[in-house]
Amino acid sequence: MPVTGDQSLIKKINQSIVLEMIRNHCPISRAQIAELTGLTKGTVSTIVNDLMKDNLVYEIGPGRSSGGRRPVMLMFNKAAGYSIGVDLGVNYLLTVLTDLQGNIVLEQTSLYQDLSYDEILSLLKKDLRTIIDQAPSSTYGIIGIGIGIPGIVGNDGTVLFTPNLGWKDVDLKGVINNEFQVPVWIDNEANTGALGEKLYGAGREASDLVYVSVGIGIGTGIVLNGELYKGISGFSGEIGHTTIEVNGKKCRCGNKGCWELYASEHALLSQAKSLPMFRGGDNREIDLESLIRLADEGHTEVINLFNQIGEYLGIGIMNIALSFNPELVIIGNRLSKAQQWIVNPVKKVLSNRLMPYHREKLRVEFSNLGVYSSALGASSLAISNFFSDSKVTLE
């Protein structure tokens, strides 16, 4: 729809363009902004003055001159406000406070086992309060909370179903909003993980990628043409519940033979119980970290178990490559800690089974954000919506 005569709308659009230019290219001068955006120097100067009054932009002194007066350089004030991102896992909570550029300022981790919804909610509120109370003072304070959930989330933010937590139709968004009185955004944790990788991690240069979140279960976040793909109802990415064994194990989702039953952290821990070292009343704790330590010590049976999990992981990634033909698949979340023992089995499966046409340009990498992908992506939801107040999409 063409815009004519609405000067306030045009000003808002131009302000958004200038702010994005400063956020993405600072330090930058007013003249450079005018040159890159096509806006007049007067328009840029007026907008910059407004942004400085709003404490979103500040000057840092003169830059290099190509002749004449040295230009005054501008910086984005990343500390004008802070966002909270939460990765709400099946057995952990990771809560981070980030500045407006996505840099982690504070973090809080809580581990748990087999807690009810009310117990996890109580813990979540406690961790959020801890982060909020420790947040530095700023112009805009806490601008929002983003939460990644291991399950299906409705377009209104309702948590519809989380197979590995047993939640159904939970209004977590409303509860957290009422408690802390800030905007709350909720999405599937693999989607927020994909956003985290696209914005801050291994996927920054990729336009088509699939993020595979391998924790207790498996979720996938899909980015196509640089945008998060969510499907017609917003439920895409449940590839962890695709069938790889027709008459396989029963899954909590109601299906049988789901990929996550064979290639996840839960699969690893379940199969570890049958290893000789854990039989006969051995009281050693079985968790991912202890298994990694045993593999580091050279325990062959543990290394073989990681290899087996890697093979099944490779099978699922092969299916992803055949379905989406992405340029990049990123393996993240907790099982990425075991990269040393699963990377070769994954690559071997792809080399032996995947058609060369799909394999030729495919890259498979492990997250360089580690366990922070989802929390950072969740935080970015709040940040992008904070700035969307000054953005308008024209049709």
TrEMBL record:
Domain of life of the native organism: Bacteria
All copies of domain HTH marR-type, residue ranges: 14-59
Alphabetically ordered keywords of this record: Carbohydrate metabolism, Xylose metabolism
A biological process term (GO) from this entry: D-xylose metabolic process
Pfam families xrefs: MarR_2, ROK
SUPFAM superfamilies in UniProt: Actin-like ATPase domain, Winged helix' DNA-binding domain
Gene3D superfamilies, A to Z: 3.30.420.40, Winged helix-like DNA-binding domain superfamily/Winged helix DNA-binding domain
GO MF terms held by the record: DNA-binding transcription factor activity
Protein purpose: Transcriptional repressor of xylose-utilizing enzymes.
Entry's family note: Belongs to the ROK (NagC/XylR) family.
Protein name (record): Xylose repressor XylR
